[in-house]
Amino acid sequence: MMRILPLLAASLVLYGCGGGRLAGSEREAEWDRTAVDAKKSEVERSVRLPAYPQDSDLLEFSVGSAPHRYFVDGKTLAVGADGVVRYTLVVRTAGGARNVSYEGIRCKTYEKRIYALGYPQHKWMEAKRSVWEPIQQGRANEHQDVLYKDFFCPDRIAASRDAIVSALRADIYGTNRPPD
Questions:
Q1: How far apart are CA 47 and CA 86, in angstroms?
Q2: CA of 160: how far to CAs of 102, 106, 122, 133, 167, in Å?
Q3: pLDDT digits (tens, 9 = 90+) for 145-176
Q4: pLDDT of residue 139
């Protein structure tokens, strides 16, 4: 029993030293992530909200069997030097509601961000929780998944603005009809 105690004590000391190094490397990794996020945030803070969308500038795209109609405002569509495609999205629900948002899709990481929400008075309100989040496959993010895969990000690289607009106008899915 007396021999076990010194071994146990030595083990705890060694474990504590290794744990300290691990905790330090975790802190360094966290610091690196924070520094990278801060640099990205600088670019994101400089994002300016566009003019409110006009029906004449809307380009429709199909989203599976969804009963809603989805549009991208061609005038607000922009591809940033940071590889983010920013655009105004207009969704006309089957029930007649019109939802407007200014969003971004980061091609390299398959993420989305909502910058602002539109109101019926044709004004923007910045989103309270505007952070990058993974695009989840499924109904809630289906439109962002379609935009990412079919229009914005071939091979995980942002297409040019002209290529995206051409693809949306090409009526690939037979959906480009004038908005109601």
A1: 9
A2: 19, 14, 28, 23, 11
A3: 999 999 999 889 999 999 999 999 885 555 54
A4: 74
- Provide DSSP, 120-155: TTTEEEE-SS---EEPPSSGGGHHHHHIIIIII-GG
pLDDT tens, 52-80?
999 999 999 988 877 899 999 999 999 99
pTM: 0.72
CA distance 102 to 49: 7
> Tokens in use for 178?
């004038």
CA 46-51-56 angle, 5° bins:
140
Here the tokens at position 40 are 């990205």
CATH of segment(s) 55-169: 2.40.128
Task: Cite the beta strand spans of the chain per DSSP E.
Answer: 58-61, 69-73, 78-79, 84-92, 98-106, 111-119, 123-126, 133-134
C-beta of residue 80 within 8 angstroms of C-beta of residue 153? no
CA pseudo-torsion sign 140, 99, 103, 37: negative
DSSP letter string over 59-70? Answer: EEE--TT-SSEE
